[in-house]
Amino acid sequence: MKVLKACFIFFIIAHAGFSQNYYTGDGGSQINLIVVRPLGESLTADEEFVLEYIQSLLITNFNKYTAIKTSGQLSNEDISKDETAFLLIGKLSRSGNFFILDLSATDPSTGLLKASHMNANVRAADIFNAQAIIDGFLDIAVKLGVDLTDAGIAAAKNPERYEIQAAINLARGNTAERNDNPIEMLTYLYNAAAYDPSLLEAASRFDVFTELLSAGDVGLSVKSDLENRERWRKILDEFDSFYMEHPPFILTFNPHPYQRGNTDYDNRTAVLQFSASFQEDVSFGAMQKVFAAVASGLKKTGNQELWGFITRPYRSPLLRTYRTYWVNAELVNNRDEVAAHITFTVRSRIVHRRNALYADTSQRARHSFKPINVDNLLTENMIVRIVSIDGIETEKAMEDGYVKIIPTENLPSNKARSPFVVFTRGSSKK
């Protein structure tokens, strides 16, 4: 079977029951709109998934906040098949440290331009927090004659974080599938369904693929033992490399510092501190399930020893030993001056027993900056910023799927540690 190589494309078309509070009049109900996946120019291979992410968010917003009947397709090769629908064609180009997002809606029957939007100063953060895409949607919708209410505009500009994360992970998963990276694909499909349980197809695809993998089916028509061994070697190597480059953990911190102790009146200084928590992310759930599927499937081939994989995936470099992450944080005043900085560490360890993985990462601590001068540097509304982790700038780490770094005033509570993790701590390398 070639199931793991099959290419699925689907879009987030939830929210079909749109709210009349989002627009007045007919909301564009007479319009059919096909959103074509944007073209990419000067993008890296790691940025290609953004094109599908943009497309799916545009479709979601048109279906949620307007009455325009909206669907999607991969390219404009077959646009002549439906001349009754307007086409929304886009292009995302990289220009130095910025991107250019260009959108245009045309009537293919006449070739007339119905609406356009262009933003030449898009930051990566504007894409990943969806603001650039939302701005494009609002501009195009209004130009197509949709009268959005203040409530509709406000709702569109303030999407739920889970919706954005679900769309990002779904796009990453579909791209990984096209690139024949099954571990990456399964992880992102799991994440998408975890962020938004309404994505039933993502959850279903994850279940189907993990069941096949557990059965030893890696999607090959059996041509030779050598080809099967090579396919399994690729999967095992991808498991190690993917989770090494995408640690399934999250660092949350309170961006609002508070004073530790009393002010030193003689030296005119004060010490500020903040709290941070480090735990496993939703991706760890995917890692657990994928590990079990890989271990089970490899065993069911009956060739684990013959192929030289007798210790895999159990002796993966990801397992048993502690991994330390170096975090750099800044204390910033309301003049955007860096008043102090600090470097601290968090660590993770993943261990396995039989086919199950356990994480030993639940850490919550207070971190104090060096004393700062209350006359020159202390202002109202001091803010903590996490600048980097392991030398990777926070924004880049988030874009690449490294350890997630999220500011929040309500830190998660410490999770109960697994007894197995605690009991094996003394036998692990530190």
Q: Briefly, what is this?
A:
It contains eleven helices and 20 strands. It has 430 residues and is of the alpha+beta class.
Would you mind describing this structure in some detail?
There is one protein chain. The chain contains 11 helices and 20 strands. It is α+β, with helices and mostly antiparallel strands. It folds into 2 domains: 3-166, Rossmann fold, CATH 3.40.50.10070; 215-427, no CATH class. The strands form 5 sheets. Strands 2, 3, 4, 5, 6 and 7 form a 6-stranded mixed beta sheet that branches. Strands 9, 10, 11, 16, 17 and 20 form a 6-stranded mixed beta sheet that branches. The chain has a 4-stranded antiparallel beta sheet with strand order 13-12-18-19. A hairpin with a 4-residue loop joins strand 6 (98-107) and strand 7. The two termini are 43 Å apart.
Sequence stretches where pLDDT stays below 50 over 5 or more residues: 1-18, 419-424
Separation, N- and C-terminal Cα atoms: 43 Å
Q: Strand portion, in percent? A: 25-35%
Oligomer: single chain
Shape: flat
